[in-house]
Amino acid sequence: MKVLLVGSGGREHALAWALSASPLLTKLWCAPGNAGIAEVAACVAIGAEDLDALVAFAKAERVDLVVVGPEAPLVAGLVDRLAAAGIKAFGPSAAAARLEGSKGFLKDLCRRHHIPTAAFRRFTEAGEARAYIHEVGTPIVIKADGLAAGKGVTVAHTIDEALAAVHAALEERVFGEAGKALVIEEFLEGEELSLFALVDGSHALALAAAQDHKRAFDGDQGPNTGGMGAYSPAPIGTPGLVERAMAEIVRPTVAAMRAAGHPFQGVLYAGLMVTEEGPKLIEYNVRFGDPECQVLMLRLKSDLLPALLATVDGGLGHFDLRWREESAILVVLAARGYPGSYAKGSVIRGLDAAAAVEGVELFHAGTKPGAEGEVFASGGRVLGVGALGHDLAEARERAYRAVDLIDWPEGFCRRDIGWRALQR
Questions:
Q1: Do the strands 27-32 and 2-7 form a parallel or antiparallel pair, or are they unpaired?
Q2: Backbone angles phi and psi of 209, in degrees to 5
Q3: N or C: where does the chain have the smaller number of CB atoms within 10 Å of the terminal CB?
Q4: In 3-state terms, what secondary structure has residue 26?
Q5: Peptide bond preceding 223: is omega within 30 degrees of 0, i.e. cis?
Q6: Residue in 91, 111, 103 with CA at minimum distance from that of residue 7
């Protein structure tokens, strides 16, 4: 099979790494890719949101399957465009991608179908939003309705923080069209869990659960980021809890989308809060999470490519996957200043030594190759150091041993990834 992977981050490197091991694969391209992906796939200089060029390339090369990594091209309708051209694609249609593309759409669906989630209200007028915040108090969560590159959510612990978030979105329009409407919802107490399921329109197959670390600094301090690390399995994700979340949240969502005439096909990522009352849905993503995808691919024993094909072809009803018993962990190395402003263009050294540590895999995110074989930092989250071990403690020891071999003074990482599970 000839496969085109769309995207350039750590998630796409993990998918490329897993796909490249498939005996079914004859050719793997990635658009646009990065320095690490270039080691396992042919990178083509087409942006992930250049829908015209992606469709044209897939047609010209007679690609058998397109795997879409990031959310923006899914929400923009890349899968619909490929389907119209007769090309199979892994990922939801634009209509189904609204589960991530519009927070309001998702919350309304939850309300109609009694899916457990935080209580909420929707707003387009700043004055009404401010009055509601004064009425209910804090802590409270303010979310931009649309895609805001991971920056559209404010967890406000004071009234002033909440009012500033409303002003920024609705009056200053810092998120543009994505912030022209807001969802304001209750703050849920509990522990977060990332649950992934392959969905073929009718059937949902749960994948291994994972847990990530959103805050920038040790001890869950600092600003929210796209994720500073992850691990799998997560102790809180017991088989019983996963089945309850599938029964109460994921499968009702799949049924609701199918009944509405917009069946969901692809991977559904349920961000859950495990509360005293049970799991509640925080949000859906309509693609693999980053950095959770990296630890899932490290633990996946089965061939990924047939699983993606079964998802596209409606064949998950009698499909199963095998997972390694080992634990997997990923430590993200980010540019100093991230998630705020940061410098690009610094050289990263020591990658070969880090990759030689037993059980370690390096996943590139924001990197570019140099003419002399150098690797340059080109993004905020730059590298993911992944490791397998017979338990989480061993995986973590291996990952941080590799981190310490990387020579990149312009970067930083958290030193406590996996602390919650190890504390247990």
A1: parallel
A2: -80, 155
A3: C
A4: coil
A5: no
A6: 91
**Tokens 């404010």 found at:** 154
Is 303 within a domain?
yes
Tracing tokens 């599970």 back to the chain, one arrives at 421
Q: Identify whether the C-beta of residue 275 lies closer than 8 Å to the C-beta of residue 189.
A: yes
Structure tokens at 244: 């309850």
pLDDT, tens only, 24-34: 999 999 999 99
Structure-block tokens of residue 357: 């540590």
Residue 410 has pLDDT above 90, yes or no: yes
Number of neighbours of residue 144 by Cβ within 10 angstroms: 25
| CATH code of residue 201 | 3.30.470.20
Q: Say yes or no: 408 and 354 in one domain.
A: yes
Kindly report, residue by residue over 187-202, the tens digit of the pLDDT. Answer: 999 999 999 999 999 9
Model pLDDT for residues 333-374, shown as the tens digit of each residue: 999 999 999 999 999 999 999 999 999 999 999 999 998 889
Number of domains in the chain: 4
Question: Based on the domain organization, do 281 and 255 belong to the same domain?
Answer: yes
Which tens digits make up the pLDDT trace of 267-312? Answer: 999 999 999 999 999 999 999 999 999 999 999 999 999 999 999 9
* Phi (first) and psi of residue 36, to 5 degrees: -80, -40
- Same domain for 405 and 288: no
Q: Is residue 105 part of a domain?
A: no
**What is the rounded CA–CA span in Å between residue 86 and residue 90?**
13
Buried b (16+ CB within 10 A) or exposed e, 94-110: bbbbbbbbbbbebbebb
Residue 175: domain span: 125-180
Q: What is the distance between the alpha carbons of residues 301 and 127, in angstroms, rounded to a whole number?
A: 53
pLDDT at 223: 86
104 domain residue, yes or no? no
**Taking residues 72-88, what's their average pLDDT?**
98
If asked whether residues 135 and 220 sit together in one domain, one would say no
Who's near 223: CB < 8 A, 6+ residues apart?
A: 215, 216, 339, 340
CB 121 within 8 A of CB 98: no
Alpha carbon distance 115, 107 (integer Å): 9
Write out the two tokens for 4. 């085109």
| Residue 298 and residue 239 share a domain | yes
Q: Return the number of other C-beta atoms located less than 10 Å from residue 239's C-beta.
A: 9
**Mean pLDDT rounded to a whole number for the chain:** 96
Residues 143, 103: contact at Cβ < 8 Å?
Answer: yes
Question: Where is the domain boundary, 46, 73, 93?
Answer: 93
Question: 7 and 67, same structural domain?
Answer: yes
Cα three-residue angle 79-80-84, rounded to 5 degrees? 115
What are the phi and psi torsion angles at 142 (to 5°)?
Answer: -115, 125
